[in-house]
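dumping this here so i dont lose it
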């Protein structure tokens, strides 16, 4: 299929996991596809969404939940967006201010080593604050319908904290998180790298949980475009995905990670020191200012574990979380919405052109892949456990919602519209 449009403008946010775009640009993978790509560094996810919706950008790096929320009109205008390519897995973390972390660890010393213990200890701190009539703690997330918002809420809920009643959650663009933590405007945040490492290295905070620990190998960013753009430029769309697929494969070769960090810092994608950006990219994570970095080989996954495949069940999980937290109230067909936004067949078509193996199924249960089970999958998948041991079974979306005590979902209404996902 020929490329209908050669001059393409794509948006990204200054985050470590914008690396597939940077690598595709700087290593010539876009050029190989006959594309003249200009990359636009944007400040906020709202800007990304609006510019893709208006056609100012041809496509963009987006949070994996964003095109789903846009299709549903949650937290913004209804925009028909699609994705056929996941850019990466994992990559986020929850950071608490130095003062809050001290209070949490004073409540339970294990909180410094266990994300689940930290969540439970934080809940005790929150209760004590309420009894003493102290202001609610405030946490930052990058977008109302962000993966970070759902991860923070999931973690808080595990300890018994109601995110909508017991704390305040505010939206702050990723590059501004550290400044807000430093000024005391927020007590913690959930964000992608390098903004957790920046806070830790500055002695401003401690990481208490990573995205990998909350839900192993869950999707983080996708390449998304409007449906109308995809239909107008199908050849261009596939060419971009081919370039990104090659970039992600290049990135997951360990010897290329430091090179990628150099590209990100020296070519203006992220205004941070090389060492700060290189840490998480090279599989090392700095969780505490006063402790040595830890090995975290899967902190960023760009290609292995079938990372780039758009699993329909993962789009359905985002919809479930929108119901759980009251962002979405009207009943919709969860499976149909997922199939309209996530396009596994498009991925398979491009993968076949490059001879890349991909899963033969479109959905998989989350929370059940043990080391023994992983051996049964070709191509190889990675662990997918939730921090609290919950399961998100294929065809059982509503049953998943029923597992959570903290939930605003109206199960009876949803069941009438989703008879096959009980």
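and the seq i came up w/
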């Amino acid at each position: 299929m020929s490329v209908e449009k050669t001059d393409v403008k794509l948006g990204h946010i200054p985050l470590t996991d914008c690396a597939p775009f940077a690598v595709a640009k700087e290593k010539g993978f876009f050029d190989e596809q006959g594309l003249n790509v200009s990359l636009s560094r944007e400040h906020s996810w709202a800007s990304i969404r609006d510019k893709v919706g208006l056609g100012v950008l041809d496509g963009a790096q987006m949070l994996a939940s964003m095109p789903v929320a846009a299709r549903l009109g949650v937290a913004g205008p209804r925009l028909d967006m699609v994705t056929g390519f996941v850019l990466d897995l994992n990559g986020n973390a929850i950071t608490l201010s130095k003062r809050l972390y001290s209070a949490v660890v004073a409540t339970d010393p294990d909180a410094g080593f266990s994300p689940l213990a930290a969540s439970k200890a934080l809940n005790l701190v929150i209760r004590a604050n309420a009894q003493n009539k102290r202001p609610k703690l405030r946490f930052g997330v990058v977008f109302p319908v962000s993966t970070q918002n759902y991860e923070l809420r999931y973690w808080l809920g595990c300890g018994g904290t109601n995110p909508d009643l017991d704390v305040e959650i505010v939206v702050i663009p990723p590059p501004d998180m550290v400044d807000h933590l430093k000024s005391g405007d927020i007590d913690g945040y959930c964000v992608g790298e390098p903004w957790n490492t920046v806070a830790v290295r500055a002695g401003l905070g401690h990481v208490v949980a990573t995205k990998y620990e909350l839900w192993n190998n869950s999707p983080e960013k996708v390449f998304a475009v409007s449906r109308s753009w995809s239909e107008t430029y199908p050849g261009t769309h596939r060419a971009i995905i081919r370039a990104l697929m090659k970039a992600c494969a290049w990135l997951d070769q360990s010897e290329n990670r430091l090179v990628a960090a150099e590209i990100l810092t020296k070519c203006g994608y992220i205004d941070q020191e090389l060492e700060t950006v290189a840490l998480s990219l090279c599989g090392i994570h700095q969780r505490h200012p006063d402790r040595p970095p830890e090995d975290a080989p899967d902190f960023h996954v760009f290609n292995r574990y079938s990372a780039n495949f758009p699993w329909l069940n993962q789009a359905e999980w985002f919809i479930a979380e929108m119901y759980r937290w009251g962002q979405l109230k009207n009943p919709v067909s969860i499976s149909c919405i997922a199939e309209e936004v996530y396009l596994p067949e498009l991925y398979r078509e491009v993968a076949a052109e490059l001879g890349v193996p991909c899963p033969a199924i479109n959905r998989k249960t989350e929370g059940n892949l043990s080391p023994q089970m992983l051996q049964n999958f070709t191509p190889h998948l990675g662990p997918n456990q939730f921090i609290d041991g919950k399961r998100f079974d294929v065809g059982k979306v509503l049953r998943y919602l029923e597992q959570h005590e903290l939930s605003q979902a109206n199960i009876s209404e949803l069941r009438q519209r989703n008879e096959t996902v009980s």
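The chain has two domains: 7-90+218-287+296-323, 92-214.
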